[in-house]
UniProtKB/TrEMBL annotation, chain A:
<dbReference type="InterPro" id="IPR036890">
    <property type="entry name" value="HATPase_C_sf"/>
</dbReference>
<keyword id="KW-0547">Nucleotide-binding</keyword>
<dbReference type="InterPro" id="IPR003594">
    <property type="entry name" value="HATPase_dom"/>
</dbReference>
<dbReference type="Pfam" id="PF02518">
    <property type="entry name" value="HATPase_c"/>
</dbReference>
<feature type="transmembrane region" description="Helical">
    <location>
        <begin position="155"/>
        <end position="178"/>
    </location>
</feature>
<dbReference type="GO" id="GO:0000155">
    <property type="term" value="F:phosphorelay sensor kinase activity"/>
</dbReference>
<dbReference type="GO" id="GO:0005524">
    <property type="term" value="F:ATP binding"/>
</dbReference>
<dbReference type="InterPro" id="IPR013727">
    <property type="entry name" value="2CSK_N"/>
</dbReference>
<feature type="domain" description="Histidine kinase">
    <location>
        <begin position="239"/>
        <end position="450"/>
    </location>
</feature>
TrEMBL record, chain B:
<dbReference type="GO" id="GO:0006355">
    <property type="term" value="P:regulation of DNA-templated transcription"/>
</dbReference>
<dbReference type="InterPro" id="IPR001867">
    <property type="entry name" value="OmpR/PhoB-type_DNA-bd"/>
</dbReference>
<dbReference type="InterPro" id="IPR039420">
    <property type="entry name" value="WalR-like"/>
</dbReference>
<protein>
    <submittedName>
        <fullName>Response regulator transcription factor</fullName>
    </submittedName>
</protein>
<dbReference type="GO" id="GO:0000976">
    <property type="term" value="F:transcription cis-regulatory region binding"/>
</dbReference>
<keyword id="KW-0963">Cytoplasm</keyword>
<keyword id="KW-0238">DNA-binding</keyword>
<dbReference type="GO" id="GO:0000156">
    <property type="term" value="F:phosphorelay response regulator activity"/>
</dbReference>
<keyword id="KW-0597">Phosphoprotein</keyword>
């Protein structure tokens, strides 16, 4: 059953019905017991009264039984319940001495004394017998159980009929209550249904009941995560558009200058700018692809194992021409042993970006040093350059995508450290950046050992 | 026409500086919000080319700040974010025009001249006075339909004088208009350019108001 409303309704109707039925059963049994008790007491009193009348000789034995009729009418004037009591007086020898009008001719009691039940002509009689040994008779007063039962039935009908008539009203009230009780759910559903697809603000339901809070909080939490993912995507797209279109604008402008200028010096300068612009743009494109690769790997497990020495060799080889152009040396202090727990291509990408940064920020003639060290669990690659280092502010933001520092020279894309950071976190390692005492900068890659 | 270029990409900044100089402008180049603000306070520019994403902030914020300080210098936004919403945001912040990257250098020059023209309250692209016609778009000058060849600086001086015929413009203002920061000013440069202008235009156009400056028109001497 998928409707909460129908489920609640059925549960409430069933439990109400069960309570109602058990109440009816209780009333039935207790009425029956009370009726039995009261009527039994009456039988006993009546029998004793007749017995005492006989004993005191206040009445003839033969007519004594008729006294019960007056008693009966006197007690129960209501027509349906009259002639309830019957009385027989038997001699000890076993002959019927006298009987009331309503009493049958058959002997009412099976026992000689006290209560007993007898079936006569298919009807059950409840009888109280008193033995009067002085006059040698037995006085029996009884009533028909059918009459007792009809009394109980009348009480039950009187109770149950109004209750049954009220039952549909109760059902309707339950239905309305369920409707009303579930209204906050409807309101939340309506609020969500009215939302625009781009509206990721938290759902505001000020008077939401406590039971809805967890669902509401979960929904708002999800909205928050989707919104921040979308914001990141938006700002990434905006940055990427800027970072890709700006060099294109530069290239186009320089090309137009080269075409328009009559001055060979100006044309040559513009063409040189185009060449360097294409170099920078290709680095940017490569880094965007590296970043995409590092991000894509977040989806699946990339815990490969790469030979540490190979990673260092590959990374150095990929930056050699850049170093030569900038007149910066590269010095590797010993090659490390063992393997790092990272995909080889990604580990090389991380180290290459660190080396590129070091080369780009080193003054010409300086040397970039790379040192490796291993401990029990980690392999460290430390890259030192003789550049100016970073300000505190830059250090704090260096890993953000497209952050290029407040005093950048325009050569970097602002992606290098973002790529390295993504790869290192992915590999379960870390990247640390620190200014050296005096001058220079150190970037350290902490790889877990394979 | 003295303009300020604010762009952080060195190749584009170089291209804009060289290209707009070729188109007859006198550009100064800066690459951060802070430098741009300092330059705008220090000198008068007839137009500003402003990139939005700068290393130390947003060009839009700088623009809004200038407008709050009642600086009405015409500003053209240059940006990669040329979605409609971004353009609206830029124009609402007080930009006079908007150009998405990459752009055409000639279009940029034309738009700069247009916002400068609107800034000086003029509708026509060409300036005329007594048979002299100059067209800032083509840097061409003629007198009585005969073309005259002027250098870039001579042209700039003539354009400034013809913007408001009769108004006297002092020598320092002319110097500021024709020299960017990188260019040294020779002490008698303006006099030399005025002398050449008179020689090329013929008599009666450019007048000297002794001790104050120069003007085009006014009462005939």
């Amino acid at each position: 059953m998928n409707s909460m409303r129908a489920r609640l309704l059925v549960i409430l109707l069933l439990t109400t019905g069960a309570v109602w039925l058990s109440a009816a059963a209780w009333i039935y049994w207790s009425t029956q017991a009370r009726v039995e008790q009261v009527l039994d007491a009456r039988l006993r009193e009546a029998a004793r009264m007749v017995d005492s009348l006989i004993t005191d000789h206040r009445i003839e034995i033969a007519s004594a039984a008729e006294a019960i009729e007056g008693l009966d009418v006197e007690r129960m004037t209501d027509e349906p319940y009259s002639h309830q009591l019957s009385c027989q007086i038997w001699s000890l020898a076993g002959s019927l001495v006298g009987r009331s009008e309503a009493a049958p001719r058959e002997r009412l009691a099976s026992s000689d004394d006290g209560f007993s039940q007898t079936a006569i002509d298919g009807e059950t009689w409840r009888v109280y017998t008193v033995l009067n040994s002085e006059r040698g008779v037995q006085v029996m007063v009884g009533d028909n159980l059918k009459v007792r039962q009809s009394l109980v039935n009348d009480v039950m009908t009187g109770t149950l009929l109004p209750m049954t008539l009220v039952l549909p009203v109760a059902g309707l009230l339950i239905w309305l209550s369920v409707q009303r009780g579930l209204r906050p759910l409807d309101r939340m559903a309506a609020l969500l249904a009215r939302r625009h697809a781009n509206d990721l603000r938290p759902v505001d339901l000020p008077d939401a009941p406590g039971e809805l809070r967890p669902a509401l909080d979960a929904i708002n939490g999800l909205f928050g995560r989707v919104a921040s993912a979308r914001d990141r995507e938006k700002s990434f797209t905006a940055f990427a558009a800027h970072e890709l279109k700006t060099p294109l604008a530069g290239l186009k402008t320089q090309a137009q200058i080269a075409l328009a200028s009559d001055d060979p010096k100006t044309s040559r300068h513009a063409l040189e700018q185009i060449v360097s612009g294409v170099d920078r743009s290709s680095r940017m494109v490569r880094q965007l692809l590296d970043l995409a690769a590092a991000d894509a790997n977040e989806e699946r497990d990339v815990a490969g194992a790469a030979d540490a020495a190979t990673v260092v060799r590959d990374a150095i080889r990929s930056v050699e021409s850049l170093a030569a152009r900038r007149n910066v040396g590269i010095e590797a202090q010993g090659l490390p042993d063992g393997k790092v727990a990272c995909d080889r291509a990604l580990a090389t990408t991380a180290l290459r970006n660190i080396l590129e940064n070091a080369i780009l920020h080193s003054p010409a003639g300086e040397t970039v040093r790379i040192a490796a060290s291993t401990s029990d669990q980690k392999t460290l690659f430390r890259v030192e350059d003789g550049g100016p280092g970073m300000t505190e502010d830059d250090l704090a933001h260096a890993r953000a995508r497209f952050y290029r520092g407040t005093h950048h020279d325009g050569a970097g894309s602002g992606l290098g450290l973002a790529i390295v950071d993504t790869i290192m976190r992915r590999a379960g390692g870390s990247l640390t950046l620190a200014n050296q005492e005096g001058a220079g900068f150190t970037a350290t890659l902490h790889f877990p050992k394979a | 026409m003295r303009i300020l270029i604010v762009e952080d990409d060195p190749i584009l900044l170089d291209g804009l500086t060289v290209g707009l100089k070729l188109a007859g402008f006198t550009p100064d180049a800066v690459s951060s919000c802070a430098d741009a603000e300092a330059a705008l306070r220090a000198s008068d520019y007839e137009a500003v080319v402003l990139d939005i994403m700068l290393p130390d902030g947003s060009g839009i914020d700088l623009l809004a700040q200038r407008r709050r300080e009642h600086d009405a210098t015409p500003i053209l936004l240059l940006t990669a974010r040329d979605q409609v919403a971004d353009r609206i945001a830029g124009l609402n912040a007080g930009a006079d025009d908007y150009l998405g990257k990459p752009f055409d250098l000639d279009e940029l020059a034309a738009r700069l001249r247009a916002i400068q023209r609107r800034g000086s309250g003029r509708a026509s692209a060409t300036l005329r006075w007594q048979g002299v016609v100059i067209d800032p778009a083509t840097l061409s000058v003629s007198r009585d339909d005969l073309p005259i060849n002027l250098t870039r600086r001579e042209f700039t001086i003539l354009r400034l004088l013809m913007e408001r015929p009769g108004a006297v413009i002092g020598k320092p203002a002319l110097e500021e208009a024709i020299y960017g920061w990188q260019e040294g000013v020779e002490s008698n440069a303006v006099e030399v350019h005025i002398h050449n202008l008179r020689a090329k235009l013929g008599p009666g156009i450019v007048q000297t108001v002794r001790g104050i400056g120069y003007r085009v028109g006014g009462e005939q001497p």
